[in-house]
Amino acid sequence: MTLLQAIFSAFQVSTEEDRKVFVLCALTLKSTSEYAVALKAKAAAPLDPVSPEEFPKKHSKKSREEAAVHPLEPTTTGALLLQSLLRLHAPHNTLVLDSTESLPPQGLLTLAHHPAASRVLDAIIDGPTIQLRARRAVLCALEAQFADVILFLNLNQTSIPHGVTTRYRAVAPRR
């Protein structure tokens, strides 16, 4: 079994639509079916947490209780998993890159605002194994919201990652 087959199996990725939400599933450490249940529950009752009974019994009671509080909250472990995949050469990192590129700009902005999820974007921008095309696609998608990202970083007294402005200048389209 190859690495990609193991990932597809673990996260139950089988269709093209599943591939598009892979990053969100991996960040939350949910399979595509679990993520769909959590997303549906959030859309139906955005203020009510998902009940732990809706998640498979194979998860521990503690993890089901944590999922009930914030079922779609990105996790540090999920971000580390994605960063590790991004350190690999193509085709192993292609699933993460394609999934990230398929997110709408507002979805990328949401990731950029989250402490753990933003590290995935940092890995795309600074990663030595990431092709220029993938960097450019992410930065161009964020370009319209770049002021919001910088404002968010300044308001939270967070320093701008070292490579962001340098890489942005290097791959941003010239006007």
Describe what you observe in this structure.
- Helix 3 crosses helix 6.
- This protein is mostly helical and 175 residues long.
- 64% of the residues lie in helices and 0% in strands.
- The relative contact order is 0.11.
- The protein has 12 helices and no strands.
- The radius of gyration is 17 Å and the shape is globular.
Topology:
Blueprint: H1 3-10, H2 16-20, H3 22-28, H4 32-44, H5 61-69, H6 76-87, H7 94-101, H8 105-113, H9 118-126, H10 132-143, H11 146-155, H12 162-171
Helix pairs in contact: 3-6, 6-9, 7-10, 8-9
End-to-end separation in angstroms reads 46 Å
The count of strands amounts to: 0
Structural class: mainly alpha
Largest sheet: none
Q: What is the CA-atom radius of gyration, in angstroms?
A: 17 Å
Helical residue percent band: 55-70%
Strand content: under 5%
Return the average pLDDT rounded to an integer.
80
Low-confidence stretches: none
Q: Helical stretch count? A: 12
Shape, principal axes of CA atoms? globular
Task: Please provide the ordered H/E string of secondary-structure elements.
Answer: HHHHHHHHHHHH
Please supply descriptive tags for the structure shown above.
single chain, 175 residues, mainly alpha, 12 helices, 0% strand, globular
Summarize the structure.
It contains 12 helices and no strands.
